[in-house]
From TrEMBL:
Pathway: Mycotoxin biosynthesis. InterPro entries: Cyt_P450 (IPR001128), Cyt_P450_E_grp-IV (IPR002403), Cyt_P450_sf (IPR036396). Its cofactor is heme. The chain crosses the membrane at residues 6-24. This is Cytochrome P450. The keyword S-adenosyl-L-methionine does not apply. Heme binds at C483. It holds the Pfam family p450. Keywords: Heme, Iron, Membrane, Metal-binding, Monooxygenase, Oxidoreductase, Transmembrane, Transmembrane helix. Belongs to the cytochrome P450 family. The lineage of its organism: Eukaryota, Fungi, Dikarya, Ascomycota, Pezizomycotina. CDD domains: CYP503A1-like (cd11041). It comes from Delitschia confertaspora ATCC 74209. The keyword Metal-binding applies. GO terms for molecular function: heme binding; iron ion binding; monooxygenase activity; oxidoreductase activity, acting on paired donors, with incorporation or reduction of molecular oxygen.
Length: 537
């Protein structure tokens, strides 16, 4: 099934939704004594979740504007097809981000919204995500060693998918190619070179990701009466895709029969597939599973380790692909202020002079224009409209800063869309200003250029890197529960962008294809294409 087919499937489900929701009549009433978005919409409240599917932007903007325009901002209920959420005002972001997971949990909010316990085949993999230690500890410690691997894989994958013809332009679908390029680069660092060069594995990993997302979504909206049958069908579909992946992943982990011992054995320099490029998440996961003496022995077996590895790929591919597509569309659309491609190219050229083919932290830190451009694209075109989504875990509920009490189980969030498009926070918020996050953004371009030329520490000319999270930029969440994978994602996208500007001519788009609103998600059009031609060296 082509990648697009999943979107058609999703569209069909979407068209059926009004029927399913009404028939299902699930408990969606606003039991909280709080004002609700869309109160002025003249739509019966039980239909608001359906309204959110098509007019999500109006509903979330309605709340943000109301919160902005009153002295004592208050929470509002936002109706949605996956359930209602309480949207907190932007001034409460630091408070929200500093609540511990035991009180307000991002993980349980995700599980409730996406049904991962069912769709990820083994609930413990998501309810007890021990693999996240691997991201926070091993991935972070090895980021610099991974950069050359990312660069190598991106170069090979882009050449293959975009071609090397220097004569004629080729039209490439961003969805078809960028998902594959990102899946390959991510698989390279998670599972090694042999796995990432397996085209079937890459296709299946993308299908698996889509199947998990689509199934979780469908399960949320189906009426109780047909749930058992439909869940069985959907899980079988996910299992079908996963069975192909597990045949590749499980042999990477070699088990022994002795419990409580390291069950995984590797060749000196890599996993059993012959990967000699260095460590991957295969090794990290296996060692991680031997650290806790009380760990369940099944956690050291290939089926469990392989599924845990798959959750890493799952977290990485969809998010990083959508963000890369947005960045490419933002960069390669004609703008009144002129294109940022020449300046990105100039920065890349300087780095090639300085570092040659070497990719390390010094080089990645020396890309202020790429950082600023990417942060700006994430601000303007980021796909997550609601952010800092949390579930109230405390049995006594939680008292909000204005004294309102929310009972256990309530879902809360803030509006990333409102915040990132607020003219009081970002002047000219609907403009793509690739240098917005550079020092002296408001000063003249000559002044800025001279600062750039004279600065020995190029990071010093950047106000904020692409990975930095703060209360006015919540793309990665904020606080202890913020995204731990963002450092890898940003490295990957910067390397990809540099490779594209240095090696391809791209015909600028007269108009950027509009992103689509699907409830509270803002995703790049599945039909977005670019015309590319290999540059002569
Ligand atoms: C552009 C790409 C990415 C985006 C936009 C993104 C975004 C996010 C967001 C918004 C959160 C929730 C934060 C919160 O609620 O405060 C999150 C959590 C998470 N992300 Fe990412 N992410 C990306 C890439 C990655 C990658 C590459 C990995 C893995 C290597 C990863 C692993 C995770 C994990 C494990 C969590 C859960 C953290 C926790 O619950 O404590 N992400 N991500």
């Amino acid at each position: 099934m082509a990648l697009h087919d999943h979107f058609y499937a999703l569209t069909c489900v979407t068209l059926l939704l009004p029927f399913l929701l009404i028939v299902g009549n699930r408990r969606r009433s606003n039991k909280l004594n709080l004002p609700c978005a869309g109160s002025g919409f003249r739509t019966p409240s039980f239909l608001l979740p359906i309204v959110s599917l098509f007019w999500g932007r109006d509903l979330i903007e309605d709340i943000y504007n109301k919160q902005k325009n009153i002295d004592e901002p208050q929470p509002y209920v936002l109706p949605g097809i996956l359930g209602n959420e309480v949207v907190l005002p932007k001034s409460w972001i630091p408070w929200l981000a500093s609540r511990p997971e035991s009180i307000l949990s991002g993980k349980w909010s995700r599980l409730q919204r996406m049904n991962f316990e069912t769709t990820f085949l083994r609930a413990e993999v998501v309810t007890n995500p021990i693999q996240e230690t691997v991201i926070r500890r091993d991935l972070m410690a090895n980021l610099d060693k991974l950069a050359p691997e990312l660069a190598d894989e991106i170069a090979v994958a882009v050449d293959e998918l975009w071609g090397c013809n220097v004569e004629n332009y080729k039209t490439v679908s961003l969805q078809e190619t960028i998902f594959r390029i990102v899946a390959r680069a991510s698989s390279r660092v998670f599972a090694g070179k042999v796995v990432c060069r397996d085209a079937n594995f890459i296709d299946n990993s993308i299908r698996f990701t889509m199947a998990v997302i689509t199934s979780g979504f469908v399960m949320k909206v189906i009426p109780k009466a047909i749930e058992p049958l439909l869940v069985w069908i959907l899980v079988s579909y996910v299992r079908f895709h996963y069975s192909k992946l597990s045949r590749v992943l499980e042999p990477l982990f070699q088990s022994t029969s002795t419990p409580k011992q390291p069950c995984v054995d590797f060749k000196e320099n890599g996993s059993r597939d012959g990967n000699s490029e260095g460590e991957t998440a295969v090794q990290w996961l296996a060692v991680n599973a031997t650290r806790d003496p009380n760990i369940d022995p099944k956690e050291q077996t290939p089926p469990w380790l392989a599924l845990r590895l798959m959750t890493l790929l799952f977290a990485a591919v969809d998010t990083t692909s959508l963000t890369s597509i947005n960045a490419l569309l933002d960069v390669f659309t004609e703008r009144a202020g002129g294109s940022c491609v020449p300046t990105l190219r100039e920065e890349a050229r300087r780095n090639i002079q300085l570092f040659g083919g070497r990719w390390d932290r010094a080089r990645l830190n020396n890309m202020p224009r790429h950082d600023s451009m990417l942060r700006e694209s994430m601000r303007l075109s980021g796909f997550a409209i609601k952010i800092l989504q949390r579930k109230v875990m405390a049995s006594e509920g939680i008292v909000l800063p204005n004294g309102t009490v929310l009972p256990q189980g309530t879902m809360v969030c803030v509006s990333a869309w409102g915040l990132h498009h607020d003219e009081q926070v970002y002047p000219n918020p609907s403009e793509f200003s690739p240098e917005r996050f550079m020092l002296g953004y408001s000063s003249s371009s000559e002044e800025r250029e001279s600062k750039l030329r004279n600065s020995s520490d190029r990071k010093g000319v950047l106000l904020r890197t692409a990975t930095e999270a703060d209360p006015s930029f919540t793309f990665w969440g904020l606080g202890k529960q913020s995204c731990p994978g963002r450092y890898l994602a940003v490295d990957l996208i910067k390397i990809l962008m540099e490779y594209v500007v240095m090696n391809y001519d791209v015909v600028p788009l007269k108009q950027r294809p509009e992103n689509m609103w699907i409830e509270y998600n803002y995703v790049p059009s599945a039909n977005a294409k670019l015309q590319v031609r290999r540059r002569r060296t």
